[in-house]
UniProtKB/TrEMBL annotation, chain A:
Organism: Sphaerisporangium melleum
Domain of life per record: Bacteria
One family name in Pfam for this protein: CbtB
Positions of transmembrane segments: 21-40
KW Transmembrane (keyword) present: yes
Keyword vocabulary terms for this entry: Membrane, Transmembrane, Transmembrane helix
Record InterPro entries: CbtB_put
Protein name as annotated: Cobalt transporter
Automatic annotation (TrEMBL), chain B:
Top-level taxonomy: Bacteria, Bacillati, Actinomycetota, Actinomycetes, Streptosporangiales
Keywords: Membrane, Transmembrane, Transmembrane helix
Annotated InterPro entries: CbtA_put
Pfam families: CbtA (PF09490)
Protein name: Membrane protein
Keyword hit for Signal: no
Residues spanning the membrane: 71-96, 108-125, 145-165, 177-196, 216-237
Superkingdom per UniProt: Bacteria
Length: 70, 254
């Protein structure tokens, strides 16, 4: 609302400075990769938690999402 | 701004995962069930007798088939959707306004196509998804390492192709630069796929029709996930990045 009228809407949108993105990229990137690891590989290729409960629980999703399983 | 985009990415990922989950449940679960039913009787391609031990997904496992095929599947697809949604938002934050005159929705759509091709489609063509009863349990470490390595290589080649396109766009017309970058990407991923070792563990007696239906369901699930991501995130990001006055006046320039 406080923006002045822009004459041509096709003008290149303002980009977000990389230094603003970087801290979030590291923080959330690591978290996201950890979640993907638990869906895709925990108690399969490698095991952080003993047993096979995680593997068994996400089993069908692991197969259908294309991760190697068994 | 970035935090706001991140939250929207995770929400879009969850919504996209819901879409993909319905598809996976209707088209994928019957194939998973059929493959597990085969597992008891089918040796793993005669690799070695140990492989005839049924996969722990059968009734005797710690998690019942009913749980695996419903909330287990939902949890796996949901967590995956939220995680890739977060990464999607961060990549969006980096490329928005840097790919040319694309608005929020067009950038999200382009990014979704790029993610589907590099994260899902190309890796699927080299190391396709397999139903239960196909892989040999002893090679899971090697297969996972190959898969993760190949996905990483393809994503990096995709990033390279975008940088190449940006560089070429300063010299040639945009369309020419895009076509050249796509051709370079296809050549590079083909070379990478040919150089990486293959995985041949399919038992000769495994039903071809079942394998085909399972793989179609798998790639369909990915296609829906990324389509949903591009669509939902595009809508959410546009509300954040484009002031409503402009949205109302713009003659839908995507
Ligand atoms: Zn399995």
């Amino acid at each position: 609302m406080a923006q002045p009228a822009i004459s041509h809407p096709r003008s290149v949108p303002l980009s977000i400075p990389v230094r603003d993105v970087l801290p979030w990229a590291i923080f959330a990137g690591v978290l996201a990769l950890a979640l993907i690891y638990f869906v895709g590989a925990e108690q399969g290729a490698t095991s952080l938690i003993s047993g096979d409960l995680v593997h068994e629980f996400v089993h069908d999703g692991r197969h259908l999402l294309g991760f190697p399983c068994h | 701004m970035v935090k706001n985009l991140l939250v929207r990415g995770m929400l879009a990922g969850l919504a996209a995962a819901a879409l993909a989950l319905v598809f996976a449940w209707i088209f994928g679960e019957p194939q998973v069930g059929a493959a597990i039913a085969l597992e008891g009787h089918t040796p793993h391609g005669g690799h070695d007798p140990v492989a005839t031990v049924p996969e722990a997904g059968a009734d005797d496992g710690p998690v019942s088939r009913t749980v695996q095929s419903t909330i287990g599947l939902a949890a796996a697809v949901g967590v995956y959707g939220v995680a890739v949604g977060g990464i999607f938002a961060l990549v969006f934050a980096l490329v928005y306004g840097r790919l040319g005159a694309f608005g929020a929705r067009a950038t999200a759509a382009l990014l979704a196509v790029g993610a589907f091709v590099t994260v899902s489609l190309v890796p699927f063509l080299k190391y396709p998804a397999n139903p239960p009863a196909v892989g040999h349990p002893d090679t899971i470490g090697r297969r996972t390492a190959l898969y993760v390595t190949f996905v990483t290589i393809v994503v990096l080649l995709g990033v390279g192709a975008v940088l190449l396109e940006r560089w070429l766009a300063r010299r040639y017309r945009n369309a020419d630069a895009a076509v050249l970058a796509v051709v370079a990407f296809l050549a590079a991923v083909t070379a990478a796929a040919l150089l990486m070792p293959g995985v041949e563990e399919l038992p000769a007696e495994f039903p071809a029709g079942l394998l085909w239906r399972f793989r179609l369901a798998s790639i369909g699930t990915h296609a829906l996930l990324w389509s949903g991501m591009g669509l939902f995130f595009g809508l959410l990001a546009e509300r954040l990045l484009t002031p409503s006055a402009i949205r109302a006046n713009a003659p839908s320039t995507v």
